[in-house]
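Please decode residue identities from the backbone states below.
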């Protein structure tokens, strides 16, 4: 940029990796947070309230197939090239 050269474009495949890894990371994190919340609420309050701790775990579980779909889409795009 200092020399007045144009900035090269960032390949779209790079973003697919970032989004897939972010979905995988957040999926695993939310599953662990949900399980920990479940046991913490079960021990501290009531077993029926502990089921609300599984909501983040369900969202995290939904992120795992999403990450898989992003990786498969990236592989398909690379194979088409």
């Amino acid at each position: 940029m200092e020399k007045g050269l144009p900035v090269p474009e960032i390949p779209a495949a790079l973003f697919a990796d970032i989004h897939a890894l972010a979905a995988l990371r957040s999926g695993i994190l939310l599953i662990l947070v949900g399980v920990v919340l479940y046991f913490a609420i079960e021990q501290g309050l009531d077993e029926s309230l502990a089921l609300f701790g599984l909501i983040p775990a369900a969202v995290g579980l939904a992120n795992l197939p999403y990450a898989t779909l992003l990786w498969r889409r990236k592989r398909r795009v690379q194979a088409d090239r």
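Observation: The mean pLDDT is 83.
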